[in-house]
Amino acid sequence: MSGTWITTRAWLLMLPLLIVMIAVIGWPLLDTVRLSFTDAKLVGTEGTFVGLDNYAKVLGGSNFQRALVTTTWFAVASVTAEMVIGVLAALLLNQQFRGRTALRALMILPWALPTVVNATLWRLIYNPEYGALNAALTQIGLIDSYRSWLGEPSSALTALIVADCWKNFPLVALIALAALQAVPRDITAASLVDGAGPFNRFRYVIMPYLAGPLLVALVLRTIEAFKVFDLVWVMTRGGPANSTRTLSILVYQEAFSFQRAGSGASLALIVTLLVTVLAVAYAALVRKAAGAT
Amino acid sequence: MERQSPLFTAFIYASALLLAAVILAPVLWLFIMSISSAADLSAKPLNWWPDEIDLSRYGLLLSTLENSAGAAFVASLLNSLKVAGMATLAAIAVAIPSAWAVSRTPSVSWSLYAVIATYMLPPVALAVPLYMGLATLGLLNSVFGLALVYLTILAPFTTWLLKSGFDAIPKEIESAAMIDGARLDQILRIITLPLAAPVMATSALFAFLLAWDEFFYALLFTSDLRAKTLTVAIADLAGGRVSDYGLIATAGVLAALPPVLIGLIMQKALISGLTSGGVKG
């Protein structure tokens, strides 16, 4: 069979997927670009061409800047915590002890819990009147009176970060554990004979095996955290006083609550651009790390 | 193996206990809330274990009496099943031929990266035109419309999973059959697809879980019992004026049950999927 026929056949086989992708991704994305240059409303008016007005308004407005800071802080804090706790948990699970298999199976639990259920669960735990966190902290004596964890701008974002971290650190742990189990036994044994301490062993013997998979986990988690919507929507809807309003929540409000499809679209594209920059930067990092080891 | 000092062993067990507690405590509490009476849940100091186990909420939510809280819950449960089921079947159907083509034809493999790249798109970038499009087609608040939209997530995902599955099946088996004069559709039907059955099943389950968990599009594109999914129903409960927190917890337990069971059963596939994805980079 000739090469061109094989290539043509491949494209023919991919046709159904391509049609679907163009219909549900390609066309909407292009239409978002078109809308972003108009003053279209979500329902009714088609809108007229307004050039870069939407972008100027969005980028110059304090709402966008504040949401960008909130989102960045959410992503950096939750992903950093997930990485650190995840690796520590993996190091633990890589030790020999009774119940290790059961504990590893347990790590599936937060991962499998739907995000909306996770958000609901933590919302109940943080409840200002009857929540378990208030009850536990009062009974231990750490706080005197019940607090409204999600109702105060000073604590709401941190409360969200904890909830996100609880759901996602086990995934990092499982990825790191799989990488740890790929470290050859004789290398760790040899480093012991050579008298390497625990820290040096981690830094020079184990880390090279962990770096690649962890970097991938870091990329995916950061992008996910940057897009966060479900958790915030269910727990705080962006409040109190907009202290947890992330970029996705802001787009939702602009395009759907206020029905300003045009400026909502421009905001959505700015978010898309930011995520793309993140993804590309990380891809370069991953390739570099893969080349180094 | 190195000999461990008793102190180190004690440290390991203490850490393991702590990790188990951190993971289990929130989930257990969700379950305990679902079986505690409203009085126990609003007691101060809080009753950490109910005086009497109260299973009535499970009956309430799963009852199909008209206009009860249960009818709404069961309707959303069925909607979730329908949407996730349809979207998964459609995604697998379009993913099989394309994943096979990409796996066997190096000259078009770049297209797979384009497909995967769309997976990183934030849903907000597509939401407005999708909303307008569904409105034009009369597919807002419809399980069919929502299933169609879910293809934005499921189609790239399943293609990617299936492609690595086909990669693991040696090309030589197919070439041998081709020399014997078998047509392509025969080769796929008789040889490749049966060999790929396990990976197809895994992909379908993961896709189903993704659709089951989805919230953003469901929130935007559904508005009542005809199409509202479970995640939206739970968010409504959590954000609404329901005064019985146990009822919210029960809905959460029921919604979490299928994915948790699937997750535990598929532990092995999940972990090997994580590793291969992670190591390949």
UniProtKB/TrEMBL annotation, chain A:
UniProt-listed PROSITE patterns: ABC_TM1
Keyword Transmembrane found: yes
Organism expressing this protein natively: Ensifer oleiphilus
Pfam families named in the record: BPD_transp_1
Compartments (UniProt record): Cell membrane
Keyword Protease carried by entry: no
GO CC annotation terms, alphabetical: plasma membrane
Family annotation (InterPro entries): MetI-like, MetI-like_sf
Coiled-coil residue windows: none
Family indicated by similarity: Belongs to the binding-protein-dependent transport system permease family.
Protein's recorded name: Sugar ABC transporter permease
Transmembrane segments: 12-30, 73-93, 105-125, 156-183, 204-223, 265-285
Topology of the protein relative to the lipid bilayer: Multi-pass membrane protein
UniProtKB/TrEMBL annotation, chain B:
GO BP terms, alphabetized: transmembrane transport
Alphabetical UniProt keywords: Cell membrane, Membrane, Transmembrane, Transmembrane helix, Transport
Membrane topology type: Multi-pass membrane protein
Annotated ABC transmembrane type-1 domain residues: 77-266
Membrane-spanning segments: 7-32, 83-103, 110-131, 143-162, 187-212, 245-266
Domain of life (superkingdom): Bacteria
Subcellular location(s) of the protein: Cell membrane
Main location: membrane
Alphabetical list of Pfam families matching this protein: BPD_transp_1 (PF00528)
Keyword Isomerase set for record: no
InterPro entries: BP-dep_ABC_trans_perm (IPR050901), MetI-like (IPR000515), MetI-like_sf (IPR035906)
Record-level GO cellular component terms: plasma membrane
Protein family per UniProt: Belongs to the binding-protein-dependent transport system permease family.
Protein name: Carbohydrate ABC transporter permease
Organism this protein belongs to: Ensifer oleiphilus
Lineage: Bacteria, Pseudomonadati, Pseudomonadota, Alphaproteobacteria, Hyphomicrobiales
